[in-house]
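Sequence design from tokenized structure. All designs in this work follow the same two-part layout: the structure record, then the generated sequence. An example of the structure record is given first.
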């Protein structure tokens, strides 16, 4: 009688390998999702510090381009202005967009007491956004 030796991997080992591969792929995909470095806590508007709020849609480039402009200015203004984002795909962001007629890439500037004082629809460049911030702080 001849016995056949099984040299392949066990079924359990194969499943563990499949799970490890799937986990690795999911981790890679998760790490590549865009994230905003800005708070989405819109309750900070009107809490004693001026605020700049960007309405953005993660599926469109306009808002992300304005966010890049914000990145350039944030270091110089972060101690005087709250930099916030209103994600239009989230209920509170959508409500913000409707209330302020803001679409992807719209920037709404708020006074320290929460009054909307200026709205920019897709600022053309960083200098234009900086000028709006200076005007906000001069009030």
């Amino acid at each position: 009688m001849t016995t056949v030796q099984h040299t392949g991997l066990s079924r359990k080992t194969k499943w563990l390998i499949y799970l490890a591969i799937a986990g690795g792929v999911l981790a890679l995909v998760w790490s590549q999702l865009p994230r905003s470095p800005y708070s989405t806590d819109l309750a900070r508007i009107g809490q004693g510090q001026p605020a700049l709020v960007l309405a953005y849609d993660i599926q469109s480039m306009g808002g992300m381009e304005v966010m890049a402009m914000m990145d350039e200015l944030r270091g110089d203004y972060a101690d005087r202005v709250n930099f916030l984002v209103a994600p239009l795909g989230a209920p509170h962001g959508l409500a913000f967009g409707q209330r302020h007629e803001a679409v992807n890439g719209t920037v709404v500037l708020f006074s320290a007491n929460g009054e909307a004082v200026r709205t920019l629809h897709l600022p053309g460049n960083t200098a234009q956004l900086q000028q709006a911030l200076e005007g906000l702080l001069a009030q």
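Strands lie at 51-56, 82-87, 106-110, 116-121. We note this feature because it recurs in several other targets discussed in the main text.
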